[in-house]
Amino acid sequence: MNQTRTFLFFALMFVAYMLWMEWEKDYVTPPPAPTSAAQTTGQAAAGDSSIPGAAAPAGVPSESANATGPAQLVTVTTDVLRLTINTRGGSVVRSELLAYPSEPRTKKNPDSPPVRLLDDEDAQFFAAQDGLVSSAGAAPDHNALFHAEKTEYTLADGEKSVSVDLTWTDPSGIKVVKRYTLKRNDYVVDLDQRIENGSATAWTGNAYQQLQRVPAAKVNWFKAYTDPAQHSFFGAAWYSPETKFDQLLFNDFAKKPLNRQITGGWISMLQHYFFVAWIPPADQAVTYTTTTVNPDTANPRYLVRAFGPSLQAAPGQSVDSVARLYIGPKLQGTLDAIAPGLELTSNYGWLTIIAQPLHWLLSQLHAISGNWGVAIILLVLLIKAALYKLTDAQFRSGARMRKLQPRVQALKERYGDDKVKMQQAMMELYKKEKVNPMAGCLPILITFPIFIGLLRVLSESIELRHAPFFGWIHDLSASDPYYVLPVLYMMVTLATQRLTPMTGMDPTQAKMMKVMPLLFGVFFAFFPSGLVLYWTVNGATSLLQQWWITRSVDRAELKARTS
């Protein structure tokens, strides 16, 4: 199989891959886990409409005590996070990731604002909520009104952590202190809800944590094709030790609702590069559910909830409910230390087994070179070195086939339209000259998964976001702004065609192959520039290797004829 056919193979396989991914979103879903009788009570409670947001609009205040009155916004700032907590419910309603600007910070745009993940604006509403419910007693849900001592908290120099206490009290004697603790250089927020029972009767209830958001607005077809973020998964995801990583698109909330009891798991909302996750204690059996709030409105909200086990506090006693909240980037190599399976939020899909090693290798090369673009080039050279023997056989076969073109043309003239005899004669010729026309298949089967895996790495890895290369390329995760790399790739492809034999190819196919460089140039024009850099360098090194092998084959044949 010649190099030009290789390009066509990649195009067809990539289109097939994209179609398969879209089909998987609509039709492939893991089977629901069996529900035991012991789980039924907890699951029923998780879907109980007494929890605001389960069946009633989330904006309707609960009827719990102290639910009326003005709310305040409390801001807490560390070296990496700035959170806004609404005393209405004590929910985290806004988050800014201080180390990640919305756009690349350049001389023209030095003050790009940080990425805002959680947001209290209606159009992009996204909140991390938590609360308590009780069937026989007072409990503050995520609409109850809490009290904070002040509205500004900052991690001071030399301090390792900062805490925010929110207090709720009930005339019956129930008091709840909700404490958020943020640590230096950490995207994990610790939550502790302490229930102090000052009443005359025992208190029993449950704690819950949930994520609620409005999906991103739909974009036009051009942005949907050219923006890498549009190809990333956007929806809910969760993890269990039994079934590992699962995910659910917002459009599938009604068709495939989640209702499972899991020990040692977590729930999250994913988007491109960033995510938010609630992580309950690993030893607790927690019921995970999904639902849609206001499904019949123009802006429905999608909710994923973790409903914890029963809590009890005798009169004069207290009980604590703890959980962790992650708000930050998909940083590979660090997330699994926070919770098992958290690195799977990078969402490489079935290519994880290829993409994760590629990411690790790229990270090591970046540590050596200090530049992600240089790391990509070094990765090309390593892959080419590893596959040298295979590509050597491919190019030597191609060089010999190029030499056979005049003889193949003579066979075509001899047998005319008799394709059967033509194919038989060509196979005899290949056998006699020890040429294998299928020599290029194995390198393709190996390099195509690498190509797709690297596409996922360059599209999903936060480390490459806004990572500059040299010159005009300021972001390897975005397309080349001046299309230099796609043009270089077209030139490499044209040069490759000149060295590639068209043996046995009919005129129509040959004409089609001539326009392939242009098609691939357009195809790659909107790909991440890091990926186009990889493929351009890969094509250029393949071209150099093919030229060298073709030249050595020519010299060997010339030497054989003159000796």
UniProtKB/TrEMBL annotation:
<keyword id="KW-1003">Cell membrane</keyword>
<keyword id="KW-0653">Protein transport</keyword>
<dbReference type="InterPro" id="IPR038221">
    <property type="entry name" value="YidC_periplasmic_sf"/>
</dbReference>
<dbReference type="Pfam" id="PF02096">
    <property type="entry name" value="60KD_IMP"/>
</dbReference>
<dbReference type="GO" id="GO:0032977">
    <property type="term" value="F:membrane insertase activity"/>
</dbReference>
<feature type="transmembrane region" description="Helical">
    <location>
        <begin position="517"/>
        <end position="537"/>
    </location>
</feature>
<feature type="domain" description="Membrane insertase YidC/Oxa/ALB C-terminal">
    <location>
        <begin position="372"/>
        <end position="551"/>
    </location>
</feature>
<dbReference type="GO" id="GO:0015031">
    <property type="term" value="P:protein transport"/>
</dbReference>
<keyword id="KW-0143">Chaperone</keyword>
<feature type="compositionally biased region" description="Low complexity">
    <location>
        <begin position="35"/>
        <end position="47"/>
    </location>
</feature>
<keyword id="KW-1133">Transmembrane helix</keyword>
<dbReference type="InterPro" id="IPR001708">
    <property type="entry name" value="YidC/ALB3/OXA1/COX18"/>
</dbReference>
<dbReference type="InterPro" id="IPR028055">
    <property type="entry name" value="YidC/Oxa/ALB_C"/>
</dbReference>
<protein>
    <recommendedName>
        <fullName>Membrane protein insertase YidC</fullName>
    </recommendedName>
</protein>
<feature type="domain" description="Membrane insertase YidC N-terminal">
    <location>
        <begin position="74"/>
        <end position="361"/>
    </location>
</feature>
<dbReference type="GO" id="GO:0005886">
    <property type="term" value="C:plasma membrane"/>
</dbReference>
<dbReference type="GO" id="GO:0051205">
    <property type="term" value="P:protein insertion into membrane"/>
</dbReference>
<feature type="transmembrane region" description="Helical">
    <location>
        <begin position="435"/>
        <end position="458"/>
    </location>
</feature>
<dbReference type="InterPro" id="IPR047196">
    <property type="entry name" value="YidC_ALB_C"/>
</dbReference>
<feature type="transmembrane region" description="Helical">
    <location>
        <begin position="372"/>
        <end position="391"/>
    </location>
</feature>
<comment type="function">
    <text>Required for the insertion and/or proper folding and/or complex formation of integral membrane proteins into the membrane. Involved in integration of membrane proteins that insert both dependently and independently of the Sec translocase complex, as well as at least some lipoproteins. Aids folding of multispanning membrane proteins.</text>
</comment>
<keyword id="KW-0812">Transmembrane</keyword>
<keyword id="KW-0813">Transport</keyword>
<comment type="similarity">
    <text>Belongs to the OXA1/ALB3/YidC family. Type 1 subfamily.</text>
</comment>
<keyword id="KW-0472">Membrane</keyword>
<feature type="transmembrane region" description="Helical">
    <location>
        <begin position="7"/>
        <end position="23"/>
    </location>
</feature>
<dbReference type="Pfam" id="PF14849">
    <property type="entry name" value="YidC_periplas"/>
</dbReference>
<dbReference type="InterPro" id="IPR019998">
    <property type="entry name" value="Membr_insert_YidC"/>
</dbReference>
<feature type="region of interest" description="Disordered">
    <location>
        <begin position="32"/>
        <end position="66"/>
    </location>
</feature>
<comment type="subunit">
    <text>Interacts with the Sec translocase complex via SecD. Specifically interacts with transmembrane segments of nascent integral membrane proteins during membrane integration.</text>
</comment>
<dbReference type="InterPro" id="IPR028053">
    <property type="entry name" value="Membr_insert_YidC_N"/>
</dbReference>
<feature type="transmembrane region" description="Helical">
    <location>
        <begin position="478"/>
        <end position="496"/>
    </location>
</feature>
